Amino acid sequence: MLLPVLLVAGEPEPLGLEPVTAGPRVTAAQRKLVEQSLEQALRALPHVTIASHDEVKDSLAAARSRELMGMSGPSSAGPVMTSVVRASVSVSNGTFHVEARRLRVGTDEVLARAVVDVKASALGQVGPTLASSLAPAPLPRKELPVVTAELTPKPIDTAPAPVPAAERPVRVALLDVRATGEVPSRALVALDQSLPAELRKLERVSVISAAELRDLLSMERQKQLVGCSEDTACMMEIAAALDADELVSVDLVLVGQRYALSSRRFDLRAGRVRQTYLEQFEARDGEELLAIVGPLATTLYPERPLRAGRTRGVDPSVIRRLNPPPLSPWVFGITTAAAVAAAGVGLGVTVGRLDTFTQYRALLDTSVTTPVPGTSLTQLEARAQTQQTLSTALFIGAGVLATAAVVQIFFTDWRGDRGALQLSVGISPSLTSLAVGGRL
User: Fold this and answer.
1) 229 touches 211 (CB < 8 A)
2) Which one of 96, 122, 137 terminates a domain?
3) Domain for residue 219, yes or no?
4) Is 162 inside any structural domain?
5) Beta bridge partners of 254
6) What is the full DSSP assignment across 104-129?
7) Number of folded domains that form the chain
8) 192 and 252: one domain?
9) In whole angstroms, what is the distance from residue 437 CA to residue 319 CA?
10) Residues 319 and 175 placed together within one structural domain of the fold
11) Backbone phi, psi, residue 206, to 5°
12) Would residue 290 count as lying in a domain?
């Protein structure tokens, strides 16, 4: 029996996205927030492929580093852009004016224009409104020739299918988190240290972080390899020079009390973005940044399951280090030592007072049979009174310090969690596969 099958297909239109420009009173975090929202909204359009400014830089840097290192392999320059989006944001009287235009490449002819006026709290939601006005119309779908398929039963092949060769692990270079705004340093370090560990939980994923790249290569050697300085583009080029397959970048923006985190999974060999992630959430004590690590890894690598025995999410020990007790152990030690010292001095003064009292009694007994100067008795009495006052004050001080030491037990960072986040990530076992030729 013959059944006609009609196949249809459509091609997405390539669209460039330039960096958003900002007015003089717009902060870098606010500008980045608008850029993230617009990029994510454009990527959500089904008939458009987006090439952002950062992607173009990454693609050029990867191609350049491979050319310098004499490497070969599949690579793609990506689609040729037919139009490009330019956006700007300015502020006046507390209202942000966001304007975006879609221009034809080569002629700068304005194909579409969108304007949005919002308050600062809504900057992260301008993307969908702008994208709906800027989006090009879907290209007409192509009708392919009609083909026929013969639906006749075929004998079942009972021979076992050949076992495919084990898939080579994908080699991922992870850049440092690029923060914009007043992001707390401890929360940023915790996020930076948690991302590599989370990605390494995935099946057949080998990760090298930016910190590990810096450990592997001295800066002088980096310059010899790719002729660049210590910045994000430089680290991206080094990752490509080490023959990584993919590059993951993370941007974190803090505007007021709200975070916007975006991440991009870039295929260095194909020169295109494979997955993106964007999430906006309220800023609290920093643990909200670690809570996003698990969903981020899942979204960027949906085809990679967890390794056996691994669980999604940041280890509780890392969360504990994020907000450790505020006091160092040496503070407890000094307080305890001061309490012991005050008690010891107070005890010594008390012994001295008893000796003074003994002298006073002896002199008083002598005065019964022999005249003694009255000033001597007065001086001994005054000394005993002073010693009593001093010993009382010392014992009170020792008691206060001892009480403070007991309270400090519950607010002291006994595990050294506060200093743990200041350490750079060490070389991981995944790097033992680094060959002499500079390959992961």
Assistant:
1) no
2) 137
3) yes
4) no
5) 259
6) ETTT--EEEEEEEEE-GGGGGG-HHH
7) 3
8) yes
9) 38
10) yes
11) -110, 125
12) yes
Residues 339, 305, single domain; the answer is: no
Helix axes 329-366, 374-408, angle to 10 degrees: 160
Q: What is the pTM of this model?
A: 0.64
Alpha carbon distance 100, 128 (integer Å): 12
261/379 same-domain check? no
Residues 107 and 239 grouped into a single domain: no
Strands 8-9 and 142-143: antiparallel
Query: Six-digit token pair at 256?
Result: 């007021």
| Inter-CA distances, 179 with 191, 255, 291, 422, Å | 11, 11, 17, 17
- Using CA atoms, how far residue 124 sits from 41, 131, 179, in Å, is 11, 13, 16
| 277 and 339 part of one domain | no
Which residues 6+ apart lie within 8 Å of 334 measured at CB?
A: none
Q: Which structure tokens are listed for 187? A: 């929360």
Q: CB 168: neighbour CB atoms within 10 A?
A: 9
How many Cβ atoms are within 10 Å of 431's Cβ, its own excluded? Answer: 17
Return per-residue pLDDT of the chain as tens, 440 residues.
333 333 334 567 788 888 899 998 899 999 999 998 898 888 888 878 887 777 766 666 555 655 554 555 544 445 567 788 999 999 998 899 999 999 988 888 899 999 999 998 888 889 899 988 888 776 555 444 444 444 444 454 444 444 444 467 899 989 889 999 999 888 888 898 899 999 999 999 999 888 777 776 655 555 555 555 445 556 555 655 567 889 899 999 999 889 999 999 988 888 788 899 989 999 988 888 999 999 999 999 999 999 998 888 887 777 777 777 777 888 889 999 999 999 999 999 999 989 988 888 888 788 778 887 878 878 888 888 898 999 999 999 999 999 998 988 888 877 776 666 654 333 333 333 333 233 33
Amino acid (1-letter code) at residue 70: G
**In Å, what is the CA distance from 324 to each residue of 189, 321, 408?**
14, 5, 13
- What secondary structure letter does DSSP report for 272? E
Which CATH number is 37's domain given? 3.40.50.10070
Task: State the residue range of the domain holding 396.
Answer: 329-411
Is 185 in the same domain as 298?
Answer: yes
Say yes or no: 177 and 283 in one domain: yes
> What does the alpha-carbon distance between residue 123 and residue 40 come to, in Å, rounded to a whole number?
13
What is the length of the chain?
440
Burial (Cβ within 10 Å: 0-12, 13-18, ≥19) of residue 208:
buried
Max Cα-Cα span within the chain: 143
**Segment holding 170, helix H or strand E:** strand 170-174
